[in-house]
Amino acid sequence: MTLKEIASHLNLEIITGGDHLSLEVKDGYTSDLLSDVIAHAPPACLWITLQIHVNIVAVAKLKDLAGIVIVNGRQPDEETKQKAREERIPLLLTKETAFRISGRLYQLLAKGR
Questions:
Q1: Alpha carbon of 19 to those of 3, 39, 71, 74, 89: distances in Å?
Q2: Is pLDDT at 80 greater than 80 in this prediction?
Q3: How far apart, in whole angstroms, are the C-alpha atoms of residue 4 and residue 59?
Q4: SS3 string of 72-90?
């Protein structure tokens, strides 16, 4: 399933990455610890987190992630948005909790398997 399809189904607000919304999302990963994501997130997954600082972009780039979903209605600062644009990392927002959006993403991806 593409990132654009997922964003539509889950009502995610797209902040950056419009040209990368055709990326195929293979899995999801939920964590707020950058070291955990570096150690365990699979490539092409959609990372769900409440972190909003610029380092999330570096981790997503390092791990070749499909994008980042920021939960709880949190807003990344302009530095984070700019870095995401530069690195071509999609940033998406939701007001939902990590628990709820993770469950919804799991159900959506499971239907496509």
A1: 11, 28, 22, 23, 10
A2: yes
A3: 21
A4: CCCCCCHHHHHHHHHHCCC
- Check residue 18 and report its DSSP letter: G
pTM of the model: 0.95
- Using DSSP's 3-state secondary structure scheme, residue 20 falls into helix
What domains can you pick out in the chain, each with its CATH number?
3-111 (3.40.1390.20)
- For the stretch 94-104, pLDDT in tens is 999 999 999 99
- The answer on pLDDT for 111 being more than 90 is no
Encoded amino acid at 10, one letter: L
- Residue 86 · residue 44 · CB < 8 Å: no
DSSP string, 28-68: EEE-S-HHHHHHHPPTTEEEEES--STHHHHHHHHHT-SEE
Contact partners, residue 37, CB within 8 Å, separation at least 6: 29, 31, 47, 49, 59, 63
> What b/e sequence results for 52-74 when a residue is b if at least 16 CB atoms lie within 10 Å of its CB, and e otherwise?
bebebbebbeebebbbbbbbeee
